[in-house]
Design brief:
This protein has 104 residues and is of the alpha/beta class. The chain contains two helices and four strands, in the order βαβββα. 21% of the residues are buried.
Length: 104
């Protein structure tokens, strides 16, 4: 279990989409997820990288094996709903891990 918030990096070249992802994360997962957005991945900070794809997937530098990378294909008309579902899923998984740690 994480003893700190999960470090989530949204990789997205579109500033509006990146702002939406950060706003949703702050609203839906405050305290469980610390999120940042960038046009490329940083190998030092994140635990999880979500590639927000609206076209061709962004190129990533080599990342250490400890960093998970997930692709999130988005269409303009459903981006908010897809992002919200993905963030809720991640936050829910973290909540389950926290509860299982309390039982140990």
């Amino acid at each position: 279990m994480f003893k700190r918030p999960l470090h989530l990096l949204f990789v997205c070249p579109e500033p509006e989409l990146a702002r939406l992802a950060l706003e949703l994360t702050g609203r839906l997962a405050a305290g469980r997820i610390e999120a940042r957005a960038a046009p490329s991945a940083d190998a030092d900070w994140p635990d999880l990288v979500l590639l927000l794809e609206t076209g061709a997937p962004p190129a990533l530098p080599p990342l250490p094996g400890r960093i998970q990378v997930r692709r999130v294909p988005l269409k303009e008309d459903d981006a908010r709903a897809v992002l919200e579902a993905r963030i809720r899923g991640i936050a829910g998984g973290l909540a389950l891990l926290a509860r299982s740690d309390q039982g140990d």
